[in-house]
Amino acid sequence: MKKISKIIPVLSGFPANVNILLGAILVSNIGNGIQTIAMSKWLYDKTGSAFAYGGVILLDYLVSFLIQFLSGAVIDRTNPKKTYIICDLIRGTVLILMGISLHYPSFAIVAVSLSVAVISMVNSIYRSCYFKLLPMLIDDPSQLLKINGIYSTVIQTGLLIGVGIVAPVLTFWNASTAIIINGITFIISSIIVMFIRFEYAALQNEPTKKITRFFRDWGTIFTYLRKDKSLIWHILISSGDIMVVNFFNILLVPMVTIWYFNNAYDISLFDGSFTVGAILIGIFISKFSNKLGLRLSSWLGLTIQGLLFLLLCINRITIVSVAIILFMGVANGYSGLIFQTSLQNRIGHELKGRIASFKNLVISILSLILIPIVSKFLDISITSGLICSAVIILIFGLSSFIINKLRIYGDNYITNRDNT
Question: Is 417 contained in some domain?
Fold first, then answer.
């Protein structure tokens, strides 16, 4: 309750549109907290393989990879609020239909695959949409890190509520019910976003063919990236925090099943610990970033996360694992917020959609390469999967450290604005 009492005064200082958006995000992420565990549990029970859930994530990123170029250009030329609403409505409808399909075993796998493909396409547009929309609702750019911190806290709070709900839902009902609940949360979220009010001036469409405009739009981005190579490294290394979440989601159910006696409540406990860690850092992100600075922050969070994966290898005590995962959530939330906010600040509104899509493209490529590797090691043993995950994340952290240590792009590569 003390944490909530600290959040309320902060929210009162934000623009009304930001608070409305945060409310919508809270609702939809309650469903997401339920969905992640429900789908992972359903697939692992059906197949007995960690690669099954890894396959769902891979399909997500494969579809995302194929649509990224289109989604970024669309976002930069459309009203992000309207696009956001459409994305939520589509995701809600598809999830409800997918939940219903689980009652028909002969059709369930096909339905899940099709649903994941559709949702992945929509998610690609949604991520670029949010990346652009939030800064447009803020008058003072200096508030962005604080708002991103609260945004992270709201997401994780929603996930935590969902994680708390999912165990009894799975115990008394089934995965189908959990997924349908998730779909309903997206419908509610779309209704909330309708209350956002802001002026939007769309880019004027030149009297040229759409295909010509498409290539010209992306030509601008690649020229921008070629002039500022530090931005490419910024995007590449920031993907490490997403990999941590992917690896943790793949690992969670097999680890609990094999090491913790298949206790569904332990799944919620571990997932909730990660979430609580991210909530805590989201509240205090500004204080920590001011003390540590962006230069140190650019590699410290990733390095800590890699080391914490190694600590999980040598422990089987539930309460100790809870503490390790809690700190992993803190490090992940901190590192992710630093990279996200600095990226939003260095890019103009007119480029945000395409830069977000380029980042998602990089994440998709890395995921398509790394998730099968981690999943295969995880099928060999939980320890192998943890060590593999740790090594990969430590490489991200070490790369960031070396770039800043050698001052390849000046004092701090995640804030370099020199595009000459």
Answer: no
Residue 353 lies in a domain: yes
Distance, in Å, from the CA atom of 279 to the CA atom of 65, rounded to the nearest integer, reads: 30
CB burial string 223-239: b at 16+ within 10 A, e below:
ebbeebebbebbbbbbb
Give the pLDDT confidence score for residue 419 in this predicted structure.
43
The answer to whether the beta carbons of residues 121 and 83 sit under 8 Å apart is: no
Please tell me the least confidently modeled range out of 45-59, 111-125, 251-265. 45-59
Is 70 or 420 the better-scoring residue by pLDDT?
70
In the DSSP assignment, the letter for residue 173 is S
At a CB cut-off of 8 Å and minimum separation 6, what does 106 contact? none
10-65: per-residue pLDDT in tens?
A: 455 677 888 888 899 899 888 877 777 777 777 767 666 655 556 666 666 677 66
State pTM to two decimals. 0.70
Range of the domain at 312: 15-405
Q: What is the pLDDT of residues 72-84, one digit of tens each?
A: 666 767 788 888 8
Calculate the alpha carbon distances from 163 to 31, 170, 325 in Å.
9, 11, 15
Q: Count of domains in the chain?
A: 1
In a domain, 105, yes or no: yes
How would residue 2 be classed by pLDDT, with cut points 50, 70 and 90?
A: very low
DSSP assignment letter at 77: T
Q: What b/e string do you get for 322-361 counting C-beta neighbours within 10 Å, with b at 16 or more?
A: bbbbbbbbbbbbbbbbbbbbbbbebbeeebbbbbbbbbbb
CA 37 to chain centre: 15
Tell me whether residue 418 is in a domain: no
CATH of the domain at 287: 1.20.1250.20
Specify whether the CB–CB gap between 308 and 328 falls below 8 A.
yes
